[in-house]
Write a structure and sequence with these properties.
The chain is of the alpha+beta class. About 70% of the residues lie in helices and about 10% in strands. The longest helix is centred in the middle third of the chain and has 79 residues. The relative contact order is 0.15.
């Protein structure tokens, strides 16, 4: 990799555009980058790193771009870094622009532009540049792949920070391991260690979980065994746990089976005793039942003997009732005939009471003849009825004619009255329509004037209000400008004071024996002292923050002033110079006239509607007048026809109604006579028939009672029983017979009689004996079931434990294998003799390569005195394999690098840095590094050592390399002719070249 050109704009302390031609500087092989403290020497290296990787080294990387911008840059100039280099035979140009908070193009304030990146490649044939990419990610991956190094490796290999390597020489194994791990990217080996440790923990966790489940099953077996099982005193994960649990489970199962056999024997004995007790109880129960049965039968027989007399009387009554049942049909027939005759005689009396006296004693035939004569007379009145109905209709028609004639006369008079005023009414309605139309036209004209008048009034009021706001905003803007100027001047004064005393501020961090961050010297004979009123960094930053806030306040006040002025100009242009009070009066007058015109125009539709209704009414009135005249002419002939028909019907009705008031009254009287006569004739015939049937029923009843053995029909009727009495009597007789048979059967049973002759049965004693035997059986069965359940549970848990042991076998084997590998890689295993971790082992090999490469240059810088060697010894409790010693050829002794002096530490660290650069370069795939930078440390060397170091650096040119030394040591300016000087002043830093063409 060779650098050709670096262009910076508004980067770090460089407020303006600066360029570095590395081609001219590299022509001499060695070049010096120098300048006063804080001028920006390291910022040149930061720009190279930023161009390549988009970030700067170490602690200076904060804010990702926003802190890279120069405070001296003009607001409109964007920060930009462009680097031209050759890597892997390709000529590339990288341009990066960090995020930029620039002023807005329109209005006030700022806006944030995103970061930009460009990558271009030069065509060797045509010499033209070709765009490759604008993607941050793609460009970063391309540069990293071409260089073969990360940003951290680049900063250690190309930008050699001597302070870091001096600390590396004095550091312990842990600190060296961290630095080497970042450079050689040994995270994969650390990941292997971590992965093996995680697998060991996971396998151990699974084994412990399996052992915990196995112990839980063992505790369940102990609980199921009733406490007779002894468990091993082992914890999950200990060896031998599975075998101990299985052995204890086997003993518990054997004990449970023995207990089950004993419980079964006890149950069989108890069941035999229970069977004997049940047989005795059955015999005693049967004898007790038979004895109680015999005693009950004796008691029932005594009760039957007491009721024997009543039983004989009920049997005699049942016999008489059965004889009377043969007479019952005749009795029922006679009662029915008697009731029918009484009903017919009553109906006849009621019908004859309605007849005239002349027909009171007439027979059924005479009454029927009288009914026929009245019906014939009624049929002759039908024609008179029709005439009477027609006469009623004629009278209704005559009344309707009179009503319609009066209505037509009233309508004709009303129409004549209304039509007399028609012309005057129509003229008034037309005048109202014309007046409303004129008002509507006036309202439209005023409506056009309303909105402009209101807008001018609103603009005038806004103009008056903004006039005062402009004065207030001008005063606020003037005060904000004065405050911003005062704050800026205060910040610049404080910054100048701090820069004047910056040496004292740097001297405050010096420690005896520690190298100076500026010159690298470890002795500080006369450090600068702070004077009274010294300004520190915090005070300057607070003043800068106050200045920025005041400037933001000024910008906001000016923006508000501009907005108010624009609004005032717009309002004045619309309102003009007319006073607001006059515009308000004009608006009120327009509104008043518009309201009056709108109210007058609102009746236009109603007026037109009234005119249309009046015209329709005029047409209806004329039509009604003509129709009334036509109807009056037609009614004259109709009235004459009705009068003639009325006279003819009146004569006919007078003849038909006779003495009655009307034909209808005469017809109603005849209808009543026909109905009464017919009813009386029917009732007389029915009474005669029922009397004959009653006489025949009396004769049949007397004959049936004599044949049944009764003296009179009354005696037979008294002997009859109704259904309920008959069923009750028969039930009592049947119950007597059944009870008598049952008692006789019980008393004659041989077993019952034999049991009655034996002593009374002791049932309570037999029951107690049977209950005791049953209780003993239940207890034995419960004991047998509990033993069986214990045995089954132990078998189930034992099988489950055995399955768990089989399942844990592969897990234990895996855990043993992974734990051995994890112990080896972590350095905790006894097989790892040096207690060296895998990552430390790899880093030790890398450190051995670095020491060998560094020894070549260290041997020359020290005139053959010193040699760097790698040590595998373990220091204290730290890592082994990362020791670094120096062999002194003058004394022949080997000692730690921490014992080197300041100058010796510098050239040892320089040799180590160059050796590390060679190893990392080879690790990165052999990318050639043609440009190197060495940052500080030369102030600790004497003249002879400085010459030897410069000779070593100058020898790098043999392979066409160039080395840039960053230092402010004055002696180097005389020894190195090619120089790049950084000059600083209040407007920012700038670059100057010396000793180049």
């Amino acid at each position: 990799m060779r650098l050709h050109r670096l262009d910076m704009t508004a980067f770090g302390p460089f407020g303006s555009a600066q360029s570095v031609d590395f081609g001219e500087l590299s022509a001499a092989g060695l070049f010096l980058l120098h300048g006063p403290t804080g001028a920006g020497k390291t910022s040149v290296l930061d720009a190279v790193c930023y161009a390549l990787y988009g970030s700067v080294p170490g602690a200076r990387q904060s804010g990702q771009g926003t802190t890279l911008r120069s405070d001296h840059a003009a607001p409109g100039v964007r920060t930009e870094v462009t680097l031209e280099l050759t890597v892997a035979g390709r000529r590339l140009e990288i341009t990066r622009q960090p995020p930029w908070e620039r002023p807005k193009k329109r209005g006030t304030g700022t806006t944030l532009d995103k970061a930009q990146t460009w990558l271009r490649e030069r065509d060797a044939a045509s010499g033209a540049w070709k765009d490759l990419s604008r993607s941050h990610q793609e460009i970063g991956e391309e540069i990293t792949q071409l260089l073969g190094m990360s940003r951290e490796q680049f900063c250690q290999v190309v930008l050699l920070p001597q302070g870091d390597f001096a600390r590396f020489l004095r550091a312990d194994a842990e600190a060296r391991g961290k630095l080497l791990g970042r450079l050689f990217d040994t995270r994969r080996f650390a990941d292997v260690e971590k992965r093996l440790a995680e697998r060991r923990r996971a396998a151990e966790s699974r084994v412990r979980e399996g052992d915990a489940d196995l112990l839980a099953d063992a505790h369940r077996m102990q609980q199921a065994a009733g406490g007779s099982m002894e468990l091993p005193e082992l914890t999950p994960g200990e060896p031998g746990l599975a075998e101990a649990v299985l052995a204890a489970a086997a003993v518990a199962r054997s004990t449970a089976r023995e207990r089950l056999t004993a419980a079964r024997c006890r149950l069989a004995t108890a069941e035999a005793a229970l069977a004997d007790a049940d047989r005795v109880l059955d015999v005693v129960r049967e004898r007790d039942r038979l004895q109680r049965r015999f005693a009950g039968a004796r008691e029932r027989a005594a009760r039957l003997q007491e009721r024997a007399g009543a039983h004989h009387e009920e049997r005699a009554r049942m016999e008489r009732a059965r004889k009377a049942e043969t007479v019952a049909p005749a009795l029922e027939l006679r009662d029915f005939a008697e009731a029918e005759h009484r009903r017919a005689a009553g109906a006849e009396l009621r019908a004859r009471a309605l007849l005239p006296a002349s027909l009171a004693d007439a027979g059924a035939a005479g009454l029927a003849a009288a009914a026929r004569r009245a019906a014939e007379e009624l049929g002759g009145l039908e024609s008179a009825r029709r005439a009477e109905r027609r006469l009623t209709e004629l009278l209704a028609e005559r009344a309707d004619l009179d009503r319609r004639e009066r209505a037509d006369e009233e309508a004709r008079e009303d129409a004549e009255t209304w039509l007399a005023d028609w012309e005057q009414t129509r003229a008034g309605l037309q005048a109202g329509i014309e007046s409303a139309q004129q008002a509507a036209t006036r309202a439209g004209e005023l409506s056009v004037r309303r909105d402009p008048a209101r807008q001018r009034l609103d603009a005038a009021r806004l103009r008056d209000r903004l006039t005062g706001d402009v004065e207030t905003a001008e005063e606020q803007a003037r005060a904000a400008r004065e405050q911003a100027l005062a704050a800026k001047q205060h910040w610049l004064d404080l910054k100048e004071q701090r820069l004047n005393g910056i040496a004292a501020e740097l001297a405050g961090g010096l420690t005896d024996g520690e190298p100076c961050p500026v010159c690298g010297a470890t002795e500080h004979p006369a450090p600068a002292r702070k004077v009274d009123g010294h300004v520190d960094r915090e005070t300057e930053e607070r003043a800068l923050a106050d200045h920025q806030r005041a400037d933001d306040h000024r910008t906001e006040a000016e923006r508000r002033l501009g907005s108010v002025r624009e609004a005032l100009a717009a309002a004045s242009a619309e309102a003009g110079d007319t006073a607001t009070e006059r515009l308000a009066r004009e608006v009120d007058e327009v509104e008043r006239q518009y309201a009056q015109a709108r109210d007058a125009a609102s009746v236009l539709h109603a007026a037109r509607e009234r005119l249309r209704r009046a015209e329709r009414e005029h047409e209806l009135r004329i039509t009604a007048q003509r129709e009334a005249a036509v109807r009056a002419a037609s009614r004259v002939g109709h009235r004459e026809r009705l009068d003639r028909e009325h006279a003819a019907l009146t004569k006919e009705l007078a003849r038909a109604r006779g003495e009655a008031t009307s034909v209808a009254a005469r017809a109603a009287q005849l209808e009543r006579d026909v109905a009464r006569l017919t009813d009386a004739a029917d009732a007389a015939r029915t009474a005669e028939d029922t009397a004959q049937r009653l006489k025949e029923a009396d004769a049949r009843l007397a004959d049936a009672a004599f044949r049944a053995g009764f003296d009179t029909p009354r005696a037979a009727a008294d002997a009859l029983l109704d259904d309920a009495a008959h069923r009750a009597l028969q039930r009592r007789l049947d119950d007597w017979q059944q009870e008598e048979a049952a008692v006789r059967a019980v008393l004659t049973e041989p077993e019952t009689a034999a049991a009655a002759r034996q002593p009374p049965a002791d049932l309570a004693t037999a029951q107690r004996a049977a209950e005791d035997a049953a209780r003993r059986v239940r207890e034995a069965a419960s004991a047998r079931d509990a033993a069986d359940r214990r045995r089954a549970e132990l078998d189930r848990l034992s099988a489950r434990a055995a399955a768990s042991v089989r399942r844990l076998g592969p897990l234990r084997e895996e855990y043993d294998r992974v734990a051995r590998m994890a112990g080896l890689t972590a350095g905790t295993s006894a097989d790892n003799e040096r207690r060296m971790r895998l990552e430390s082992y790899v880093l030790a090999a890398r450190l051995e390569q670095v020491a060998a490469a560094a020894t070549v240059r260290l041997h020359r810088m020290s005139s053959g005195r010193y040699t760097l060697v790698h040590s595998d010894d373990r220091s204290g409790r730290g890592r082994s394999g990362l020791g670094l010693h120096v062999v002194d050829a003058w004394t022949g002794r080997e000692r730690d690098t921490a014992t080197l002096s300041g100058g010796e530490t510098f050239f040892a660290s320089l040799a180590l840095a160059l050796g590390l650069a060679d190893v990392v370069t080879d690790e990165a795939g052999g990318v050639r590094l043609d440009t190197l930078f060495i940052d500080e440390g030369f102030g600790s060397l004497d003249d002879q050592t400085l010459d030897e170091v410069l000779d070593v650096l100058d020898s790098l040119r043999e392979r066409d390399r160039s080395v840039g030394i960053v230092s402010h040591v004055g002696d180097l300016r005389r020894r190195i002719h090619a120089q790049l000087e950084v000059v600083k002043d209040r407007s920012g830093s700038r670059l100057r070249r010396h000793g180049t063409r």
